[in-house]
Amino acid sequence: MKTSIVSYLVKRFLRFDSEQPFIFLSALLAFLGISLGVMVLIVAMALMNGFDNEFRKKLTIMNYPLTIIPKFYGAVNENLLLDLESKFPNLKFSPYVQSSVMARSGSKLEGGYIFGVDFKSEAEVNSVLKEAIKDKNFNKFDVLIGKSLKEELNLYSGDKLMYIFTHVEPGGMSVTPKIKRFNINGIFDSGLSAYDKAYSYTTLSSLQTMMHLPSNQYSGIHIFSGDPHNDILKIKKYLPQSVTIKGWWEDNVNFFAALELEKVSLFIVLMLIILIAAINIISSLLMTVMNRRSEIALLLSLGATSAEIKKVFLYLGIVIGISGILAGIVFGLSGLWILGTFDIIHLPKDVYPTSTLPLDLSLKDFLSIICGAFIIVVVSSFYPAKKASEVDILTVLRNE
Q: In the chain, where are the structural domains located?
């Protein structure tokens, strides 16, 4: 019987009252505000996760899951490569030689790095290069450059590109930088303009010749691993003291920490939309309490308890809030479907790692949005419900 009274009063107070339209309008604004807040949060969190995952995927490829490099006094050689290949047959290894260079075309200069690699081995650890060198053969002093460098220097396949090496060699009474023209044999596009402009790839023998290195000595070894966080611990046990290994994430710790901080800040700021909407719930319920004081007093005099009255207004606020949350979920998921299905927003690919909006709503973020909104709604409904249960029966009825 008690439940039916509470349910009946909740339904009755939710109806539109022509004599007090502002109460209904305030409740409607609260509903719309919560719906908007939940919808915006869902879309924003999906976008933040999408960009985060897209950057992680691109950076994993171009920075390589794992890289073995020498310490200050060490060297990476063929014996180490063969030893690792025998111990870890499930991983892919690609030795490389690296040098910092200046690429020059006409009067234009661009700084960066050139890697000497075995293109067959490198294709197994770098999917971007695998796509770029498809059906291509690389001869000595052929080079593969990035799309951004091609556009910056206005180059095409078959052109010659001058590289000025930072390593110098003696010449009489002075030292002169090493300079070599390479033949452009292909273009790669990683989706990250900074890497496309800075990185170039040539054959292993070409760079070993330029660096005066023996054929069995390298600058490092690129490794492809499906589980780099665990594999890095296993490989460390077999490495000599002269070399070390690093994961792709070690060079990007600050970048992803900044992304995570931005995501948390955005969540807090957008949650304020729901908090502002919850103020409308408080005002709507307080106006209802003031308008229904005589009815509340009468109910209390007829045997209704203070707990029942508190439940009525608590449930009233929760119904408004939950309705807004459910509507926000529907609108938010519909927005994600529209943005993911139709090419409404086109991103500049030279700025972002993808030209379409990356969307990925994690279960953790989704539950955080729902729980956060629900807590705000419950807290907002509690104070008006408490005030309703504290109505003084004698005072109200005497004045009425």
A: 2-59+255-399, 66-224
